[in-house]
Amino acid sequence: MPAGSGSPSRHRKTSSGPVSDAGFVLDVRNLGRRPGTLREMHRTVTEHGRLGLDLIAIPADAEVELDLQLQAVSEGVLVTGTASGPTVGECSRCLEPFDDQVQIRLTELFAYPDSNTEQTTEDAEVYRMEDDLIDLEPVIVDAIGLELPLQPLCSPDCAGLCPECGVRMAVAGPDHGHEILDPRWAKLAQFATDAPGTGDPAEGSTHPDRSAPAAADADVVSENQEEK
Ligand SMILES: [Zn+2]
Ligand SMILES: [Zn+2]
């Protein structure tokens, strides 16, 4: 996972820099490493980078609500719950900006520094706790990336842009159209105008094939006529 490979550097940063129980970093010391100990946690995080994908994301420093349950287990701390926040996106069909909300579910184990899990797994497999601190940011970045759509829409039935002139169909209205409404109708219309003459010019590729047998028939007819 790309974000997993990015987490070690983040962890290094947390251990060297000034760390505290703030933002996406949780201090879990008060769980006391007693398996079964449970703590509910609610927090609004307002200092963070942009969280999401190219076309849609939670903007930097927008309010992200954390509703979590922290549970001490034998190998570490299990974090479950939700993170939710407002998103700003650009519709992949009509290119208009739009607002939405995203909520992600989290279930993540943070291994104790000296636990079996910590010894027997890679950094990218299981998150680590450092100095009784849990950094949720890489977890949230991963989960939001998976939750948000790669091709976001302003509404499920967004009509997009007019393929002829590029105007937004939502603005132009259902009556908007150009001379050629629909390829199928256009063909019917052409057929109707061509039908009376059974005109050759518009017949296109079928024309040469048809003309050959028609000429042969004509010869046969004329021969018959001569015999009579
Ligand atoms: Zn749209
Ligand atoms: Zn148009």
From TrEMBL:
One Pfam family of this chain: YceD
InterPro entries in UniProt: YceD
Compositionally biased tracts (Low complexity): 211-222
Signal peptide feature range: none
Region (Disordered): 1-22, 192-228
Highest rank taxon of the organism: Bacteria
PANTHER family attached to this UniProt entry: LARGE RIBOSOMAL RNA SUBUNIT ACCUMULATION PROTEIN YCED HOMOLOG 1, CHLOROPLASTIC
Protein name per Swiss-Prot or TrEMBL: YceD family protein
